[in-house]
Amino acid sequence: MCGIVGVISTAPVNQLIYDALLLLQHRGQDAAGIVTMQGRQCFMHKARGMVKDVFRTRNMRALPGNVGLGQVRYPTAGNAFSEEEAQPFYVNAPYGIVLVHNGNLTNAPALKQELCDLDHRHINTGSDTEVLINVLAHEMETAGRGAVLTPDAVFRAVRATHRRLRGSYAVIALIAGHGLLAFRDPNGIRPLVLGQTLVDGAPEVVVASESVALEGTGHPLLRDVAPGEAVFIDLAGNVHARQCADSPSLHPCMFEYVYLARPDSVMDGISVYQARLNLGESLAQRVINQLPPSEIDVVIPIPESSRPSAMQLAQKIGRPYREGFVKNRYVGRTFIMPGQSVRKKSVRQKLNAIAQEFKGRNVLLVDDSIVRGTTSQEIVQMAREAGARRVYMASAAPPVRYPNVYGIDMPTPQELIAHGRSSEEIRAFIGADALIYQEVDAMKRVVGQLNPAIKGFEASCFDGHYITGDVSAADFEAMSAQRVQARAEDEDADPRSRLALHSQA
User: Fold this and answer.
1) At what angle do helices 151-164 and 128-144 cross, to 10 degrees?
2) Which of the following is catalytic: 2, 42, 244, 461?
């Protein structure tokens, strides 16, 4: 899960990209990067950390130009602790291409071998984004060989790129001296939206992961980039668009609406906030069927993203809604969690119970989803310690039974509390008096009704159906091995990259 943004303007774009990344910070907190272009020269700054920490005044002054792009990273492939794998990525041929990517390529290992054996391109990191930019660069070189680079040539390159890539990808690329390119995978799994305004009578065009990044910077939402579509914005701000996939089909990621996206965003014609209200209403019916509302004294959300669902649920069952937990917004991320005691400490630092809302009451806690179960277990215990008589738990999403391979940092099957367990076994593990889950079909129905044009969703972590059709048991084993390796990385290890070591020598 990452957040990406690209801008073409007649004015400097460094502050605009910075502001947009702040609005997308929820999509990634591990690293941030910005590239700007002045003439044909590109300027880059990227590092690990939050946007406000990565970019200081001196960094912003060193990012001149009227074209640029940026990314906030939450790593799902490669090394989470390597600044070398922070985005944007750059290749100097052809033209000079800089790229940011949200998603995950499921065929990255095979592509890496292809790039080495057939395209004679070297991949220096474990990041699938480096694989993607090299595939695009090779196809751009082929499409534009011996001629001036035109939008037609760019679209031919994207069409060829689509045919080689598998998985999810929303991409924004800067082509030095030519313009900005954005495209989305043929299934439209990860979101990408287009906005535009006028600055001194000239167009200023923004492409970003979520509409909130457009609206928050004064750019009305024009539309979503369609699955398989490529959008090329030349340096004059003219927008060229073409469908470049053979069989595009819109299947947006359901987890965006459940948890990932900001509630004030609209993606693929669906209000995230309204989707969560609908999930709460559907969940309320499940609660009524399994637990008499008279047994519930109060409905309490687990901050933040479960609030709309909890409010709608409370209204539907006729019970009071209360804020029973306060979230500390200023606790830094715990990057390495070596044991459950550290994880529990982290939960206690981030959430604190308001005792008067729990004491002597039967409380229904509402969460957006339950993944590992350890956080839910700790929250149930906190409610009991605050004096709750009985603690019920409801999840606005169905059981998360399968890993995600399309760009969400989802645990391996063995780490998922719902994998191979019944609801009763999960209830016993988290220590709740009752556990009510959303149904998969109901989830798809109530979110899908907000845009009838959407015929299906990518909901593999709930139903085990992988839309690209190329995910195997070997892929899960490789993911497990990668997570084990990532845990073994020491956050305090030598931060110098392999390339930097050569230059220092």
Assistant:
1) 140
2) 2
